[in-house]
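Reviewer comment 2.1 asked that we show a complete input and output for one of the modelled complexes. We chose the AHM case, as it is the one discussed in the main text.
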Amino acid sequence: MKRKTTLTQYLVEQQRKKQAVSAEVRLLIETVARACKAIGHAVGKGALGGVLGSLETENVQGEVQKKLDVLSNEILLEANEWGGHLAAMASEEMETIYHIPNRYPKGEYLLLFDPLDGSSNIDVNVSIGTIFSVLRAPHHSSGRAVDEQDFLQAGKEQVAAGYAVYGPQSMLVLTVGAGVVGFTLDREMGSWVLTHDNITIPEQTSEFAINMSNMRHWETPVRRYIDECLAGKTGPLGKDYNMRWIASMVADVHRILSRGGIFMYPRDARPSGRAGKLRIMYEANPMSFIVEQAGGAATDGARRILDIQPEALHQRVGVVLGSRAEVERVQRYHQDQA
Ligand code: AHM
Ligand code: MG
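Response of the prediction step:
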């Protein structure tokens, strides 16, 4: 029987053969993966673990926090603060950055995460997930501690990115800049086992994912593309399209990595939608890195997402990502409009 490759073995191999990861990054990813296992365990218990429902608190974006949002955030902080591989962390659930407590050594990397993405699906037993991004901490010769400004790096600077999806199976999908691989959690053994080597996104697709209830607010290029999809075989795109919308970015992107498609959460005309909904640093950037590494593309309409210079930790951005040919078409429609 062929021996199974675990996450640890995969990372050691990357470190040894391709030098794609340093020992610190390997440790960091393994620690995040261990935290994801714990989050997946809590998610799996649901009502039995008393973890469903909301708290009375709001996060910095004014969203009501779910118990699992906060618990997942704590699991990730606790798992990562003591290993010596990080200079600081940032999260969707925290207003500003989290400094590594003085009692622990500091490392050279920055970790950003959305601890539990797809919050509206937590209480209804639909797939949710964790998204993470790893950056290098700038070196300060003065020895001063890192600050929020140090996190504001374009997505192309990411060293690694990944997500865990908690669904019928728990899976971890990862890139260290050398393609995309997927691991499935072997619940009996408690280990992440490599099950999806070299994930690639088909270039063409006939499936789109967008929240159609926002249609009246969309900008013209988005409306044009979706109108053409809806026109089917006799329309300008010449084929019938299907639609899927899970409303967990992790699950929607995972489907696209599995069988192609386009995912859009575009900017729109609402006062709350002008900048987009999804956050660049810990949602759009890691997902765009993964999608590009799998042969797909990611844009905000005008620019490649990974090229955008962020100006704030919780900055939002319009997102169009997935199969290359479709994303490029949407981008062309934006250029036509400009
Ligand atoms: P969250 O981080 O608070 O869960 O919000 C992000 C989620 C994405 O997972 C998903 O794509 C989107 O919000 C769904 O939004 P909507 O409910 O407007 O369809
Ligand atoms: Mg999110």
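Residues 23-45 form the longest helix (23 residues). We note this here for comparison with the apo prediction described in Section 3.2.
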